[in-house]
Specification:
Structural class: mainly alpha
Bound molecules: protoporphyrin IX containing FE
Strand content: under 5%
CATH topology of one domain: Methane Monooxygenase Hydroxylase, Chain G, domain 1
Radius of gyration: 25 Å
Strand order of the largest sheet: 1-2
Helix content: 55-70%
Distance between the termini: 37 Å
CATH architecture of one domain: Up-down Bundle
């Protein structure tokens, strides 16, 4: 209990005088006030407040993962904070509908006054992206230029500094890399798993040949090429040189070791010790998916408001935003792991000793 604190007044505690004195339409300053500019300001400010909360959660999760040994008991805290971020994201998506009650014509009443300010300059949005592992190098060239080129020196320095520090993404990657279970003197999980996948791929090939023999030759060829491409992708998973080449080319984000261990978690998530790690990974995929949904919805909103006009920040507007939605995926590697999931019944059987080690054993 905190002792000896004085009486608190609602408005003072929340510093409402300050907060509610920051909605100042530019249209009012320069002439007739455009009615919808207040909505535009409030919606952006509320977004920035929620970004602040998301950063608060992400940074706390980063601290939990930034130690050499993450205690199992902390993982439920991590899961509830990730869950909270997901709930906030639901609000963020809903707010676009409020924004869309403004029509393109009403927007034009004050839009010109905003140039060259734009969402490009939302430093907190960039911080979230960086913490989730999206560094300058991983951005598309055009995105990279906008990312830094529209910021003032102070904001640019701040982001470049954060980029040099470990991110939540890198801390999670190290946590995954440290995961035990897949190799010891008696058991090499990956060699057993590879032969299971080989069986599955051969089965798939037979199915294609049996059931699709009646397809026109061209269609059959495409099916076979798709199977071969799955096989090739699968092989890169186990070939360090090939895998690291893909990382360098920006086609993979997580290290090979982290990816393999994440796959193990997805395959054996029923084992008690992997339940929480699995939930962490599932939440991260949800968060990635929710941000991507927001990006597409925001791109559509920009299209609706601007048509094919350029943005106030100078990009191609809707086209640019759609490209960023496609490219800026933090945990895309986790999504791609589904390529390598095999049916429960075909998974390698784990040795009894390992299964016991992965269980919670209670004694009276
Ligand atoms: C009338 C409503 C809006 C329109 C027409 C609009 C349009 C745009 C456009 C065209 C861009 C590309 C940059 C540029 O050339 O200016 C952009 C970027 C951005 N906007 Fe909006 N926006 C709107 C509302 C919002 C709201 C409410 C937020 C919430 C914070 C937001 C956040 C962002 C962010 C973070 C970016 C950078 C995205 C990236 O680079 O991936 N925008 N917006």
């Amino acid at each position: 209990m905190h002792k000896n604190h004085g009486p608190v007044y609602y408005g003072d505690y929340l510093e409402l005088n300050k907060l509610l004195d920051t909605q100042n339409p530019l249209s009012k300053k320069y002439g007739d006030e455009a009615h919808d500019e207040t909505l535009f300001i409030v919606v952006h400010q509320v977004y920035e407040l929620w970004f602040k909360q998301i950063l608060h959660e992400l940074n706390s999760i980063k601290s939990i993962f930034s130690v050499d040994k993450v205690e199992e008991s902390f993982l439920s805290t991590v899961c509830s904070r990730l869950e909270r971020i997901k709930k906030v994201q639901t609000l963020l998506l809903g707010q676009l509908e409020v924004m869309e009650t403004m029509t393109p014509m009403d927007f034009l009443e004050f839009r010109d006054l905003l140039v060259p300010a734009s969402g490009f300059q939302s430093v907190q949005f960039r911080e979230i992206e960086i913490l989730l592992g999206l560094s300058t190098n991983q951005r598309k060239e055009v995105d990279r230029e906008y990312f830094l080129g529209r910021l003032n020196e102070q904001d640019k320095e701040r982001l470049l500094k954060i980029e040099k520090e470990p991110t939540l993404f890198s801390a999670l990657e190290k946590w995954l890399e440290r995961m035990p279970f897949t190799f010891n003197a008696e058991f090499d999980f990956w060699s057993e798993y590879q032969s299971c996948v080989e069986d599955m791929l051969c089965g798939d090939e037979l199915t294609v040949l049996d059931n699709m023999a009646t397809l026109p030759p061209k269609a059959l060829e495409i099916q076979k090429a798709n199977l071969q491409s799955t096989r090739d992708t699968f092989e890169t998973l186990f070939n360090s040189d090939e895998y690291n080449k893909l990382v360098k080319e920006g086609k993979r984000r997580l290290s090979q070791k982290a990816t393999l261990n994440a796959l193990f978690v997805l395959l054996y998530r029923d084992e008690p010790i992997l339940t929480l790690p699995y939930t962490v990974l599932a939440h991260l995929m949800d968060i990635d998916e929710n941000f991507t949904t927001w990006r597409y919805k925001h791109a559509l909103m920009a299209h609706r408001m601007l048509g094919t006009k350029i943005g106030t920040g100078g990009s191609s507007g809707h086209q640019y935003l759609k490209g960023a939605a496609d490219n800026n995926r933090s945990f895309i590697d986790l999504f791609n792991l589904s390529t390598f999931i095999i049916p429960r019944s075909q998974r390698p059987v784990l040795p009894e000793k390992l299964k016991t080690a992965m269980n919670f054993n209670y004694r009276d």
